[in-house]
Amino acid sequence: MANTITTSANTIQISVTDKLHFLFTAIALVIAAYAIAFRYSWALTLVTSSSMLFVLVVYSITTPLIIKKLQRLEKALNTAASIAGEIFSSIRTVMSLGAQQSLTDKYFSCVDDVQKHGLGMSLQLGIQLSPIWFAMYSSFALAFWFGLKLFREGHIANISTVIM
User: How many beta carbons lie within 10 A of that of residue 48, not counting itself?
Assistant: First the structure.
């Protein structure tokens, strides 16, 4: 029980501090990028922001699936960790009764379950990340095409606005 509580508390602490840092960094980056982009060309900024809608839709569909898989993975990890903790806390009893092989087999069956759940997440992550990369490269192409169109029509004075 103590092992599970300690593991859960450490996981929560690490995940909150990491995610909070990334959240503030991402928000600051987006605000600064939009401020700079709107200064140079509001039309180009709005056109290239269209990919953000696609990314939000993809994330809203795939994230619940990944969270379900991750919860199963965490449950399997906790089971394996609790078995290992029980074995190490009662190592004298295990050695005196000769139960090493049966407990080792029990632990490795839990580890195999963890591996199965981890490999199951790879498909979900691929389904989530491939449209994101597609949106990013499509946004680059759209920015260059629309930026050159705005430059040819005289809405942008300098071509370096498109390149930046």
Answer: 19
Q: How many CA atoms lie within 13 A of 58 on its CB side?
A: 18
CATH number for 2-163 (one of 3.60.130.10, 1.20.1560.10, 3.40.47.10, 2.60.40.10): it is 1.20.1560.10
Q: What is the pLDDT of residues 26-57, one digit of tens each?
A: 899 989 988 988 888 888 888 888 888 999 99
Selection from 67, 32, 71, 30 nearest residue 52 by Cα = 30
Interval 1-15: pLDDT, tens: 666 677 677 677 666
Predicted TM-score (pTM) of this structure: 0.64
Sign of the alpha-carbon dihedral angle for 37, 42, 44, 48: positive
Tokens of residue 130, six digits = 């491939």
Task: Look up residue 74 and give its two tokens.
Answer: 């965490």
CA distance 26 to 18: 12
Positive or negative torsion for Cα 18, 22, 25, 31? negative
Cα separation of the two ends of the chain: 55
